[in-house]
Specification:
Blueprint lengths: L1 E3 L9 E2 L25 E6 L3 E11 L4 E22 L2 E5 L7 E8 L7 E33 L2 E3 L3 E5 L1 E5 L13 E5 L1 E3 L2 E4 L4 E7 L9 E11 L2 E7 L5 E6 L3 E6 L9 E8 L4 E12 L5 E4 L2 E5 L5 E5 L11 E6 L2 E7 L21 E7 L3 E9 L3 E14 L4 E2 L4 E11 L10 E9 L5 E3 L4 E8 L8 E11 L2 E15 L7 E4 L3 H8 L4 H17 L14 E5 L8 E5 L1 H12 L6 E2 L7 E3 L3 E2 L2 E2 L2 E2 L3 H21 L5 E3 L2 E2 L6 H14 L4 E4 L13 E2 L11 H6 L3 E5 L19 H11 L4 E4 L23 E3 L12 E4 L5 E2 L18 E2 L1 H24 L3 H7 L21 H17 L2
Parallel strand pairs: 6-13, 27-36, 37-50, 40-45, 41-46, 45-47, 47-48, 48-49, 49-50
Antiparallel strand pairs: 1-24, 2-8, 3-8, 4-8, 5-6, 5-7, 5-8, 8-9, 8-23, 10-11, 10-22, 11-21, 12-15, 13-14, 14-21, 15-20, 16-19, 16-21, 17-18, 17-20, 23-24, 25-26, 26-28, 28-34, 29-30, 29-33, 29-35, 31-32, 31-34, 35-36, 38-39, 41-42, 43-44, 51-52, 53-54
Helix pairs in contact: 4-5, 7-8, 8-10
């Protein structure tokens, strides 16, 4: 996690205004100019390429590190990118919040001969609207590297056993800086190096008292228009040798020749060649080192070069924290320990020393008709095979009540290799995500490795309140161990259908491709398995009836003015009834023809039966068509679940088009909910009545006015936002997807949306065959003018909450695969959070008819504690806070009765 301190205005640094006075620095660096910008000031964008305010020349120390900070907020509506910083290290921001927020980053100046002069800029790129800048500050800083495993390591570095890894974290507060960065003369933009002819960057890898015995370099080029970049290596002062050339987009890997080892230090240089025009989004180096095996992680603190004040900090990845877990039993060569289901457990983490209370094992607390899980981790001291965890018999309460063995599911946690971290929260390595069914012969666990198992209990409706006990048996090649399992069932049950609405994309066509489905019967079987999995986690797909769409034909269409629609609802009605009855979905997206549609990228004009939307006959047709849809939904009792989602993420240039489409909907089907994935804007007020902004943009527009008019709110995450926000990415803390529902309750939002659940491949990144999501967890861009063969990253696991079965993972099955899909940790965390939201709903309803004394006692529980989430970016990744408040909610519901 990244932490920035608040800026204190002292005499030791300077608010930037208009002149260019210089003063000496205590550490030998040239201090910042006393003045650069007069603030506050406003930049107005009209959608052009660039509109920014520039400073005069600012003299900086070559190779020096500087901390640049400012406060910014958007005034009114607008879009586009805010650009900030010196020309040598620009950083883009998506600033849409009308509330002023402090932004800051560290950059390192190119190493050239003094004096080095830079111009600073604040403004926008293709920006519309106004952004106000205030309190612009620049401070020289020193980097203080972390100490771990007897070594000095900075952020992005780690040693696991005898394997050293460094990966740039150029999206972090440290931006282009890192401990291995030796020298550079190259442009930097936001999270990437920008190459031209002769531009170069050099990294030096060296560890205290250790030698390297191998080396492997990985360079990710995310943008390329011409030329290339040469990758070179030099070890222990020997001559530079060429490893290869980066010539296009993608990840390029190079192995350092064994002749260069052993080496105390290894230099890697990347140099732009003739006509070079490309960008390097990440650089990584890994190799074996000598010495005692250790587990060590780097960290960086940036302190004011003159005062020593801590300004920013990049800690070791939270993924590697070891402050949780308790041992429950151990035997020869194996330790079993427990952890919350919300922890993502590294394969190489040490088993905790702390022991669970005597007699305790896995403990789960849940309501009837609710699924809740915990993790049992098998840590192998020696290599194990045939590892399997099973529940031995049913669970029994002291009163003789029973929970059948089948109500407890035990899955093996699978891992995927993250090569390109999504953002500053992630890191390279093996990350847990797929929840695999156990093989009947068990699995292998390497010596020194962890294998978590997810134990999930769902007591059926009507299960009496009480504590139910049983035994989990851990079987392996060297014997077996017994672990107590305790499931406490609260004195209430959850409903089948949740209150928090969900709307998630689900591409069944892609599923059919991976499963090699050839007949309608096969498709029905597999579809049921996917919908059952989504329903079990309270996720409603946009379209719950992909195999049974409703149809409409037009009688007398030769004369559009008098044509009449003829609807065929039979198969669709049956599928939708099943969706609500069996899977308990709570929303239904209604596809509407004739409105046109599209996104900010491209759109289709409205037309019905060839009649354009500008013709009044068009409205005659749409009145009959939309009126028929609305009437049928009202008759079936589904209007309260239905919504129309016909345009995605408009920009201001699209607003008139969007208003026109919503006007048509509102005119001819006023009871249909009109959903738009956009923040509330004054210009759009009165058109959508169901707003769905990106999570950081909830408060960015006319939210209060829309709420006062009765509009409702969902919100969404996708390829953004990234850290420090809650996200759907694999390489983020496990608790985040559960926490999202707590933020949803806190912000009075009624629903969640994610664009896809089964986005397993990109036709741009994988044009010739289907991507294997177990082998490549990155969601690569498709569409938006992305060329064939180009890999542009959206984020690890973006739009991918479900996995195909292993038997269909590479999409090359030649015979139909009817196996069930595999849930992810993130999917189950989402489901758990939606159930938590229901606890709040139930307590609020119960308190509405409670006595004054009861309300006084329990009403405070309806507020989400700040220890869980204070703001959208200030929240705890420790799941114990959520778990503790959830139990308080449960005890209140038990005390109040239902």
């Amino acid at each position: 996690m990244i932490m920035s301190t608040s800026m204190k205005k002292t005499a030791m640094f300077f608010q930037l205004s208009a002149a260019a006075l210089m003063c000496p620095a205590a550490n030998g660096q040239t201090a910042v100019p006393k003045a650069i910008f007069d603030t506050p000031f406003e930049v107005v964008g009209t959608g052009g390429e660039s509109n920014r305010r520039m400073s005069g020349d600012v003299e900086l120390e070559p190779g020096g590190r500087y901390f640049f900070s400012f406060t910014a907020r958007r005034s009114g509506s607008g879009s586009g990118t805010v650009v900030t910083g010196p020309d040598c290290a620009n950083v883009d921001w998506g600033i849409s919040d009308p509330v002023a927020a402090r932004r800051s980053f560290v950059f390192r100046v190119p190493e050239d001969k003094p004096p080095h002069k830079e111009k600073f800029h604040l403004g926008g790129w293709r920006m519309t609207g106004k952004v106000l800048f205030e309190s612009v500050e620049l401070r020289p800083v020193k980097a203080v590297w972390g100490k771990s495993g007897g070594m000095e390591l900075g952020h992005g570095e780690e040693v696991s056993g005898n394997r050293y890894v460094f990966a740039t974290q150029m999206g972090s507060v440290g931006r282009n800086d890192s401990r291995p960065l030796f020298a550079h003369d190259i442009g930097y933009n936001t999270d990437r190096w920008c190459f031209w002819r002769g531009a170069h960057v050099t990294y030096r890898h060296a560890l205290d008292g250790r030698r390297f015995f191998s080396g492997k370099v990985a360079v990710h080029c995310g943008w390329h228009t011409a030329g290339g970049a040469r990758v070179e290596v030099r070890a222990d002062g020997r001559d530079w040798i060429e490893l290869g050339v980066v010539t296009n987009t993608g990840v390029f890997e190079f192995t350092v020749p064994v002749s260069e080892f052993p080496a105390k230090e290894v230099f890697v240089r990347v140099v732009g060649l003739s006509k070079a025009s490309l960008q390097m989004h990440s650089y990584a180096y890994e190799g074996l080192v000598d010495g005692e095996p250790v587990q060590a992680f780097g960290a960086t603190r940036y302190v004011d070069a003159q005062t020593g004040e801590l300004l920013a900090q990049i800690k070791a990845p939270s993924f590697y924290a070891e402050d949780y877990g308790e041992r429950v039993c151990e035997g020869a060569g194996v330790v079993c320990w427990r952890a919350s289901a919300a922890h993502k457990i590294p394969q190489t983490r040490r088993a905790p020393e702390e022991k669970a209370p005597k007699g305790e094992g896995i403990v789960i607390r849940t309501a009837a008709n609710e699924a809740e899980a915990a993790q049992l981790v098998v840590s192998a001291k020696d290599a194990l095979s045939g590892v399997r965890v099973e529940l031995e018999g049913d669970l029994l309460s002291a009163a003789g009540a029973r929970i059948a063995r089948g109500a407890v599911d035990v899955r093996r946690v699978g891992y995927v290799r993250i090569e390109q971290p999504t953002d500053s929260e992630g890191c390279r390595g093996m990350w847990p995500d797929p929840l695999l069914p156990q093989d009947k012969d068990g699995c292998a666990v390497a010596a020194g490795a962890n294998q978590p198992f997810r134990v999930r209990a769902k007591p059926p409706k009507g299960t009496p309140k009480g504590v139910y006990r049983g035994t989990l048996v851990v079987r392996h090649s060297s014997g077996s161990l017994s672990v107590p399992l305790e499931v406490e069932v609260f004195g209430f049950e959850l409903p089948d259908e949740m209150t928090c609405e969900t709307a998630f994309g689900f591409s069944f066509g892609g599923v059919c491709s991976y499963h090699c489905l050839k007949t309608d019967e096969q498709r029905e079987v597999v579809l049921d398995k996917y919908l059952s999995l989504l329903g079990a986690n309270h996720i409603s797909p946009y379209d719950p009836a992909p195999l049974a769409p409703w149809k409409v034909s037009w009688k007398g269409k030769e004369n559009p003015a008098t044509a009449e629609p003829v609807f065929d609802w039979a198969r669709w009605d049956a599928a939708v009834e099943k969706a609500f009855r069996k899977y308990h979905f709570n929303t239904l997206m209604i596809p509407v023809r004739g409105l046109g549609g599209g996104t900010f990228h491209a759109r289709r004009e409205p037309s019905m039966l060839g009649v354009p939307g500008t013709n009044e006959v068009y409205h005659v047709l749409m009145a009959k068509y939309l009126g028929g849809i609305e009437s049928h939904l009202r008759e079936k009792g589904w209007l309260n679940k239905a919504y129309v989602y016909w345009f995605d993420e408009p920009e201001p240039k699209d607003y008139d088009f969007v208003k026109n489409g919503f006007s048509t909907l509102k005119r001819h089907a006023p009871a249909l909910r009109r959903m738009l994935t956009e923040q509330p804007e004054e210009e759009l007020f009165g058109y959508p009545n169901l707003w769905c902004p990106l999570t950081p943009h909830l408060h960015a527009g006319a939210e209060a006015k829309c709420r006062a008019a009765g509009d409702k709110f969902w919100w969404y995450v996708c390829c953004g936002p990234k850290a420090p926000y809650v996200t759907e990415f694999i390489d983020h803390p496990g608790v985040e997807m559960r926490l999202w529902s707590w933020q949803t309750w806190k912000e009075d939002v009624q629903g969640l949306l994610i664009w896809a659940t089964t986005y397993w491949t990109s036709y741009a990144a994988y044009p010739d065959f289907l991507q294997n999501p177990y082998e490549d967890p990155m969601s690569w861009v498709s569409g938006y003018s992305t060329k064939r063969g180009v890999k542009r990253a959206w984020g690890n696991g973006d739009g991918r909450l479900v996995y195909p079965p292993l038997s269909a993972a590479d999409g090359r099955a030649k015979a139909p695969v009817l196996d069930a899909p595999v849930p992810s940790i993130r999917l189950e965390m989402l489901g758990d959070g939606i159930e938590d939201y229901e606890y709040f709903v139930m307590l609020k309803r119960r308190l509405a008819r409670a006595s004054a004394a009861e309300r006084k006692r329990y009403e405070t529980l309806l507020s989400v504690p700040e220890s869980i989430t204070k703001t959208m970016t200030d929240f705890s990744i420790d799941p114990s806070h959520i778990e503790a408040h959830r139990v308080k909610l449960a005890r209140a519901l038990e005390a109040l009765g239902l």
